[in-house]
Amino acid sequence: MHPLRIGGLVALVVGIVLVVMGYNASQSFTEELAESVTGRYSDETTWLFISGAACVTLGLLLAVFGKKH
Predict the structure, then answer these.
(1) Tens digit of pLDDT for each residue in 18-58?
(2) Gap between the Cα atoms of 53 and 69, Å rounded
(3) Burial, 21: exposed, middle or buried (Cβ in 10 Å; 0-12, 13-18, 19+)?
(4) Which of 49, 67, 52 is nearest to 7 (CA)?
(5) Is 15 helix (H, G, I), strand (E, B) or coil?
(6) Distance (Å, rounded) from C-alpha 24 to C-alpha 43?
(7) Is the pTM of this model over 0.90?
C-alpha cells in the first residue's frame, strides 16, 4: 500500500475520533447549558467538529485518490 493511502487512512481515523470527541463534548451538561444561554457551542467544541470534518475529508480523498503504486 502506498504511503499516501496509509496517511489518508490515518487522517480518516483521527478525523473520526475528533468528531466523536466533539459530539461527546457537545453533550456535556456544561456545554448544553452554555449553548442554551449563548445559542452556540464553545470554541473548543466548534474546533473539534471543524478539524474532525477536515481530517475526514482529507483522509477520504487521500485514501481514494492517493497513488496506486
Answers:
(1) 999 999 998 999 888 888 898 888 889 999 999 999 999 99
(2) 27
(3) middle
(4) 67
(5) helix
(6) 14
(7) no
In sequence order, what DSSP letters do the residues of 21-65 get, joined into one string?
A: HHHHHHTSHHHHHHHHHHSS--HHHHHHHHHHHHHHHHHHHHHHH
**Alpha-carbon gap, residue 19 to 50, rounded angstroms:** 8
Q: How many CA atoms lie within 13 A of 10 on its CB side?
A: 6
Q: What is the distance between the alpha carbons of residues 19 and 3, in angstroms, rounded to a whole number?
A: 24
Cβ atoms of residues 19 and 52 within 8 Å: yes
Q: Which amino acid is at 53?
A: A
